[in-house]
Amino acid sequence: MSMVDDPEVRDRIRIDASICGGRPHVRGTRVRVADILELLAEGVSKEEILADYPYLSEADLRAALAYGAAASAHRIILAA
């Protein structure tokens, strides 16, 4: 099963053309998956993120990570 097929990820990460320009975001917020990934890449701890965004949960952060991992695991097809 793919990470984006995980019910928790599907329930928490949304894509809606009218929110965040159609970019993946945490449901009920305007926090994009990319925002969370960038913060983590910059070394911001999950505790700091949760303090700055109290409406997010640890499960939201895990879902964003899973979504980002699945999005980067695209197939590469090489022509012969």
Keywords:
4 helices, mainly alpha, Arc Repressor Mutant, subunit A, two-stranded antiparallel sheet
Describe the 3D structure.
- With 80 residues, the protein is mainly α.
- It has one domain (3-70): Winged helix-like DNA-binding domain superfamily/Winged helix DNA-binding domain (Arc Repressor Mutant, subunit A, Orthogonal Bundle).
- The protein is built from four helices and two strands; from the N terminus they run αββααα.
- It has a two-stranded antiparallel sheet with strand order 1-2.
- Helix 2 crosses helix 4.
- The longest helix is centred in the C-terminal third of the chain and has 15 residues, at 58-72.
- The protein is globular.
- The mean pLDDT is 90.
Q: How are the strands of the biggest sheet laid out side by side?
A: 1-2
> What overall geometry do the principal axes of the alpha carbons give?
globular
- Topology pattern, helix = H, strand = E: HEEHHH
Q: What ranges have pLDDT less than 50 throughout 5 or more consecutive residues?
A: none
**Computed structural class:** mainly alpha
The total count of strands amounts to: 2
What is the domain total for the residues?
Answer: 1
How many helix segments? 4
- Report the span from N to C terminus: 30 Å
Overall pLDDT: 90
Q: Specify the CATH class.
A: Mainly Alpha
Looking at how many chains there are and whether they match, the oligomeric state comes to: single chain
What name does CATH use for the topology? Arc Repressor Mutant, subunit A
Report on the biggest sheet.
2 strands, antiparallel
User: What is the percent of helical residues?
Assistant: 40-55%
